[in-house]
Amino acid sequence: MSARAFTPAEVSDLRAAFPYFAAHDLSGDGPAYLDAAATSQRPAAVLDAERRFLETANAAVHRGTSGAVGEATGAFEGARAAVAAFVGAATPEQIVWAENATDALNIVALGIGEANAGLGVAGSERFALGAGDEILVTEAEHHANLIPWQRLAAKTGATFTYIPVREDGTWTLDDARAALTPRTKIFAFAHVSNVTGYVAPVAELVELARAVGAVTVLDACQSVPHIPVDFGALGVDFAAFSGHKMLGPNGIGVLYGRPELLAALPPARTGGSAITRVTMESAEFMPPPLRFEPGTQPVSQVVGLGAAVDFITRADLARAAVREHELVERLVAGITETPGLRLLGPADTSQRIALTAVSVAGVHAHDVGQFLDEQGVLVRVGHHCAQPLHRALGITSSTRASVHLTTTEDEVDRFLDALRGAQRYFGAEVSA
Ligand SMILES: Cc1ncc(COP(=O)(O)O)c(C=O)c1O
Q1: What's the predicted TM-score (pTM) here?
Q2: Which CATH code of 3.40.640.10, 3.40.50.720, 3.30.2130.10, 3.40.630.10 fits the domain covering 48-313?
Q3: Which Pfam family is one of this chain's hits (predicted)?
Q4: Distance, CA 191 to ligand 1 centroid (Å)?
Q5: Which CATH class is domain 8-42+316-425?
């Protein structure tokens, strides 16, 4: 990485742009907010963009002919273009609005289900799945990128397979090479694990998948908010991420797709706005992306997401990535040098970003979480919607600290101190 990390003064200026941090930092009772992987705080620019839109320009986008509708539709489609440019889509039409990443992944899995139930559109044959075909995922997936594929396999008779994780919760290119077969039709995996922080070698994986003719689906929830991501350059067929993890609003997520694949994917949810012609017997659908956006859209959330992309771009995501990496190194060093703390995922920090999850020997994660909460350290405890991964690691839950572009060294140190405090409090200290 060649970009320069933010200076402490720049981080402080960034924090001042977030009402949440400004309020707490000024009052001096600030929590250490280390839960951005679950949901991020929003800068005033995002909150203001939503409010301004609702106060001055709210109208039913893509419906009707008034100037007001035209203006609102312009804001809605402008945000689509901004998101497209941000993630390396060649055209805005490659960006489909969804409720969140979970919904975006379901649009693909359910759509392929429709294609196989005789409800396809022109070109849907490319998604044909049946007995003998395979859907491949990894054991490290978030449930959002696991259950939709389990169900698609059950519906179509395809075989559901997965790449088992290694002892540290990671998996490698070689593991993928061994698991991909000429029968693999779909390969779905996370760019960055929400438990181990492991960064998958996406471009190489896409190449392997292409060689056997498999469609790739990337869960980019934990990458897009933290590092510059170019889906076009990576070559993925589909990708999904959520607005609320990247300084944007709740209720808005994104599905990215390669044009020819989106064109061949039937809509699983149907209704008003997404159609060209409807009779009492049948319906014909719009081209993507509107085909996948039936009903009234979350317009102010879309406008807010556009503002979030603008904020991140101005802040400089490449510099944020360097800064965040330094914080992850600090976390990993603090965890690995403390006896009794088990770091989940690679100790080699060049393989990970964004977060660290730990298991504290002799203390349940919920007890750790309660202790940390009392110290004002906000983290996520539990299985983080990745039960199979925790099971593979021989635990049921862990404690996760995640960083973002506003995180400070002090917040990281408070987390590490609080973990050690929890060990002492619960009598679980381990001598070196
Ligand atoms: C890796 C990963 N995938 C998918 C999701 C689901 O995101 P959402 O709940 O916003 O749909 C998350 C969120 O926790 C995640 O971390």
Answers
A1: 0.97
A2: 3.40.640.10
A3: Aminotran_5
A4: 12
A5: alpha beta
